[in-house]
C-alpha cells in the first residue's frame, strides 16, 4: 500500500502557518519524564521531504490512538496541533528549528509502523532558511497561514504590545505545558476549573489578600495566584468554567505542598497581567481532569500529599463548631466516611461553607480534586483545602460504576477503614455475638446497619433461587430476562446480550448453641460455603438432574464458619423486618477462636 505523505508541509507549519490535517511519518518516539509526573513523548517526524525533531505528544493522546500506541515508522494524520516558540536555554541551541515546537493534540493512525518498517523517502533535516524561502512563494495546496497580518506573531514568538492591549483573540496561543520562566512573551487560552475564596492575612510585615485559580488547556494544567490590589482587579472578572486568554504572568516552581496539578510551575499575576474572556468556540477547551487514587493505597502515601479521590459517602457526621487556637476564629467542619470499590473507607473532613451546606443523605458520590492526606493516631485521613474541588454525583463513568456497586453490593459490606485508630498495631475488631444476643440487642436500627461476627454452622440452604442469570458486563449484576431467542436483556443497562454470567444469591440458615437465623450471601461468600464457583453451580442447576443439584447443596450442611454480618431493619409490604447479610465468610481458625474464648473466660473470672 503506497502512502502519500504531505510532502514539504513542515516548511509552512514550522514558521507559524497551518496545513489542514497533514499526513506525516513518526520516525522515532521517545518517552520523557517530568517532575510533575505527566508523561510526554518527544517525536521525530518526517513529511517525506523534511524531518523535524521538536514535536511533542502527551501519553493520553498516544494511548488512545491504538491499543499499542504509535509504533516506530507509523504514518499518522495530525487532526489537531499547534506550534509555539520557546526561547530558553534548552532550545536556543537548536537553530534548525528556530525554537519552535510542534505539539500534537489529536492524531489518527493511518498505517501501523510495523507494516512499513522503514523511513519513507529520503527526508533531510528541516532548516529555517529553507522554510523562509518557501514562505516567500505560494503556499502548497490545502495550506494556509494561521494568523492574518493584523495579529501575526513573528518567529521569535513576539506579538506587538499594541495588539496585546487591544485584544488577544486570534493571536497565536501557547500550550500550558510549554510555559517556562525563560520566555515571558506568550498568550495562553485556558478554562478556569476552580477559583478559591479571597483569603486575607495580617502579620508583622503587614496585611494582604490573595486568591488562586486553576487553569486547564488541551496540553495540561497550571495554577494562577493574585495578590493585594490585583485581587480587586480580577476576582469578580473571573468565572469558573469560562475560557480566558491570559498573558504576562510571572512563572516560578510550583509548591507541591498545596497543589497536585501536574505542572512543574505555577503563575503569579503582576501589574502588567492581561486577562480577556474568550468569546470564540470553547468546545475544544477541556474541563476538569482527575487522577483518582484508590482509597486502599492511601496508607502507603506520605502525609501532606495532595491527591484526587472518588468515593461514595457511607455516613455523615454532625456539623461541628470550634475556635482556632491561633486566631480564636470560629471554624466549622463535618466528617464523612468515603468508600470505594477497593472496599476501603476513609474519613474526609469538609470545612467552612462546604461543611455547612453538605447533605450526605442518599449516599452521594463525591469526586474530590486536591484533598490533603493527614495522619491521626496511626490512621490516614483526608481534608479539603481552600483550592479543593468537591463535585457531588458528577456526570462521569467512574461515578456511575461506583454508585451501582454501592447500591448492589457495597452498602452491605464492612469496609476496611484506613482511618481507624489502632490498638496494639491492629484496628479494633467487629464484636462477637451469638444468635440469641443478636435478637436481644435489637440490631438493625442504625441507618448504616449494625455489624457483628459469629461462629456458626450451616443448617439449611434454600436451593430454589440460589443462582440466577445476570448481566454479563463487569459493572452490572442485574438479573437478565431470557428472550427465548438466544438473547438476554438487562433492563438496567437497557441492552441485549448473547451471553450472561451466573451469580449466586443464597439464603442460608445459620445456627449456633443459642439459636439460629436466616442469612443472605452474595457470590463471593456463597462460593466459599458451597466450594464451587457461580458458573459451576449454575451449570449443575441446568444439568437436568435436580437430584444431583439438591444433593450438592446439602453437602454444605453442618459446616462451620466465622460469619461477619451486617444487620439492618428494612420495610417490605409495609412491614418491618431484619435483613442480615454475611459480608465475609471464613473457615474457623480454632487457634484464634480459642484465644478469644480464653480471654472471655478470664474477663468473667476477674469480674466475679
UniProtKB/TrEMBL annotation:
Listed GO MF terms: DNA binding; zinc ion binding
Residue spans of biased composition, Polar residues class: 148-159
Residue span(s) of domain Replication factor A C-terminal: 451-597
Residue ranges of domain Replication protein A OB in the record: 295-392
Pfam families attached to this UniProt entry: Rep-A_N (PF04057), Rep_fac-A_C (PF08646), REPA_OB_2 (PF16900), tRNA_anti-codon (PF01336)
Keywords: DNA replication, DNA-binding, Metal-binding, Nucleus, Zinc, Zinc-finger
Cellular component GO terms, alphabetical: nucleus
Location in or out of the cell: Nucleus
Recorded family membership: Belongs to the replication factor A protein 1 family.
Name under which the protein is recorded: Replication protein A subunit
Organism: Sitophilus oryzae
